[in-house]
Design a protein that fits this description.
With 379 residues, the protein is α+β, with helices and mostly antiparallel strands. It has five helices and twelve strands. It has a twelve-stranded antiparallel beta barrel with strand order 1-2-3-4-5-6-7-8-9-10-11-12. Helix 1 packs antiparallel against helix 2 and helix 1 packs antiparallel against helix 4.
């Protein structure tokens, strides 16, 4: 009895903590993986700031450390603008990029399928001296305007007990640093397990490169140089508000030409902090919270559900459970004492019965002995 009360109190406390955490979590509906964004856009007026640090390795450049600063703001339920730049590299200011993302009208609710189109603008910090239009003494820093497509599926909308989200993303800028030398294509996909606060994911994809015509080499006829990678990662939330993303990206296969080959990034470790500055909960996340709360409540005992439906708060229920535990302990002690007294009484009664039987037996023997004496001797 005592153990059942303790277990019930522990369940109540865990339920209070879980539901309270879910209700206070500030998460954006456009949270994706490290390298694959979600098709959703952040809510109208929401503003997030991002701090990022990445360490990568390639045979040409060796280890490269690239810190980055970014931000994103929502303009409506269908549009957001985001930007990012690297403040310092080995050669000075790093690349700058901006993304205008437009999604479908129904993407501001929890849905199964979402689609978004992005216009990606890149300003490379790589000096372009090889293109046919450049001059050796006047290197160019070229801007690039390229499209990308995002498709994702939030399976929680159909199966409340399966908080899984899958992503597919395709675009034309796999590596900003190499855009002056190659036409690029990429295809990425990811599988993410989302909980109320945190998430785990595994992503993979490939980059396909077509070398541009230069002053010394002709243009490639196809995207014959390519490589493929895999990226496990996680999202961890601090103080129900700040998100920390970490991921390790590894190249697992590459196909390059023999002369002047493409040298893709072989390894990359990235960590990013996303901080919501202005936040208003969207329909998507409100529905997600309700589903998580309902799923957790559904796993609890029926008696607890009845108490919740009757209007009692969980905190009072825990207090009642703890008080009941104390009363149960006192009642248990009193019951044990009564049982002991009862047992003593039964033992005493047994002994009295045995003594009475003994007296009766002695009395019978005495009567038998008396009857066996002749009448003259009795006088």
């Amino acid at each position: 009895m005592r153990q059942k009360k303790l277990i019930k109190a522990a369940i109540c406390l865990l339920l209070i903590f879980f539901i309270t955490e879910c209700q206070t979590v500030k998460r954006g509906r456009n949270e994706g993986t490290m390298n694959i964004p979600a098709s959703n856009v952040t809510g109208n007026g929401n503003l997030d700031v991002m701090l990022e640090s990445a360490t990568g390795y390639s045979r040409n450049d060796g280890f490269v450390f690239a810190p980055a600063i970014g931000a994103q703001i929502g303009f409506s339920n269908m549009m957001q603008l985001s930007g990012r730049f690297v403040p310092i590299t080995k050669i000075g200011l790093g690349p700058i990029e901006a993304h205008l993302q437009i999604t479908t009208p129904d993407n501001d609710n929890l849905r199964l399928l979402g689609v978004a189109l992005r216009a990606d603008i890149f300003l490379s910090n790589t000096q372009d001296t090889l293109s046919a239009t450049t001059q050796n003494d006047k290197p160019e820093y070229n801007p690039y305007l390229l499209p990308s497509l995002i498709i994702d599926a939030d399976w929680l909308a159909v199966f409340p007990s399966i908080p899984v989200k899958t992503y597919i993303c395709a675009g034309m800028a796999d590596n900003v640093e190499l855009l002056s030398r190659y036409n690029e294509l990429y295809l990425k996909t990811a599988f993410e397990w989302k909980t109320c606060q945190h998430s785990l994911y595994v992503a993979g994809g490939g980059g396909f490169y077509q070398e541009k015509q230069t002053k010394t080499t002709p243009e490639d006829k196809s995207y014959k140089q390519n490589y493929f990678w895999v990226e496990p990662g996680a999202r961890y939330r601090l103080w129900n508000r700040i998100s920390l993303l970490g991921a390790i990206k590894l190249a697992i296969f590459k196909h390059v030409k023999e002369n002047d080959p493409l040298e893709p990034e072989l390894f990359n470790f990235s960590i990013r902090m996303e901080i919501p500055i202005l936040y208003k909960e969207t329909n998507t996340e409100a529905i997600r919270t309700l589903i998580f709360m309902k799923t957790v409540k559904g796993k609890q005992p029926d008696s607890l559900d009845k108490k919740i439906s009757a209007g009692k708060t969980l905190l009072k229920d825990v207090n009642a459970s703890l008080l009941g535990l104390q009363d149960s302990t006192e009642k248990s002690d009193a019951l044990e004492e009564k049982e002991e007294i009862k047992k003593r009484r039964e033992d005493t009664q047994k002994k009295m019965d045995e003594i009475e039987k003994l007296f009766m037996k002695l009395n019978e023997e005495d009567n038998i002995r008396t009857d066996s004496i002749p009448a003259g001797e009795k006088k």
